[in-house]
Write a structure and sequence with these properties.
By secondary structure, the chain is α/β, with parallel strands linked by helices. The protein folds into 2 domains: about 140 residues, Rossmann fold; about 60 residues, no CATH class. Helices cover about 35% and strands about 25% of the residues. The protein contains 9 helices and 9 strands. Helix 6 links the parallel strand 6 and strand 7. Helix 3 packs across helix 4 and helix 4 packs across helix 5. It is globular, with a radius of gyration of 18 Å. This is ABC transporter ATP-binding protein. Belongs to the ABC transporter superfamily. Pfam families: ABC_tran. InterPro entries: AAA+_ATPase, ABC_transporter-like_ATP-bd, ABC_transporter-like_CS, P-loop_NTPase. One of its GO terms (molecular function) is ATP binding.
């Protein structure tokens, strides 16, 4: 389970996130939504130990990320903009991650097959399409067979078949009793995947709850999103 409590981070005195709090529960997919600049990326970076909060906590299974004994076996993550060395082969990228986390080599081939990349595993990443790179990033997140997945825009660059694959993967992951936190700008796809929704705007949580409760009275998740965020960019934050 992911528990975020009063999470606050300032840059130059300006709050990027301001008292953010929510829970992503086991057995459920939690959609994490917000306009550009709302504080989503900052929250994810704080959760994954890439930045330190000024106040509050972000816990995965009751621990801060930096206190996890085997991080990749506990949480798998895909952050938008993060990627492998372009000159490295796809299989070598995953093998390096596996070795550094004491994950058996056979797991590399399992996730390559799961991500539909077995036929291109020997190619250098610089020759991959955007969709192939995205699949490789998801494969890396799955390497440790973690209890928690944190994915930022996982369907970016994927074709319809790839989008369906991600949707089924996340639904199956949650159905097995594990936790999924999904950050996305795609309202329709989130509505078809998520059980719960967190909406953030201006560095603060505007709404948090089951998808049907957030959408109630608005007709759709997209309409609810615009009503909650004022139909514009963030009021503050990074």
């Amino acid at each position: 389970m992911i528990e975020v409590t009063r999470l606050t981070k300032r840059y130059g005195g300006k709050p990027a996130v301001d008292g953010v709090g929510f829970t992503a529960r086991q057995g459920r997919v939690t959609g994490f939504l917000g306009p550009n600049g709302a504080g989503k990326s900052t929250t994810l970076r704080l959760l994954l130990g890439l930045d330190r909060p000024d106040d509050g906590t972000a816990l995965i299974g009751g621990r801060r990320y930096r206190d996890l004994r085997h991080p990749l076996r506990t949480v798998g993550a895909l952050l938008d903009g993060a990627g492998p060395v372009p000159g490295r082969r796809g299989v070598d990228h995953l093998a390096w991650i596996a070795q550094s986390n004491r994950i058996p080599r056979r797991r590399v081939h399992e996730v390559l097959d799961l991500a539909g990349l077995s036929d291109v595993a020997g190619r250098r990443v610089k020759g991959y399409s955007l969709g192939m790179r995205q699949r490789l990033g998801i494969a890396a997140a799955l390497l440790g067979d973690p209890e928690v997945l944190v994915l930022d825009e996982p369907v970016n660059g994927l074709d319809p078949d790839g989008i369906r694959w991600v949707r089924n993967l996340l639904r199956g992951y949650a159905a097995s009793g594990r936790t999924v936190l999904l950050s996305s700008h795609l309202m329709a796809e989130t509505a078809g995947t998520a059980d719960d929704v967190v909406v953030i705007a201006g560095g603060r949580v505007a709404a948090h709850g089951p998808l049907d409760e957030i959408s109630a009275g608005h007709g759709s998740l997209e309409s609810a999103f615009f009503a909650l965020t004022g139909g514009r960019g963030a009021l503050g934050g990074w």
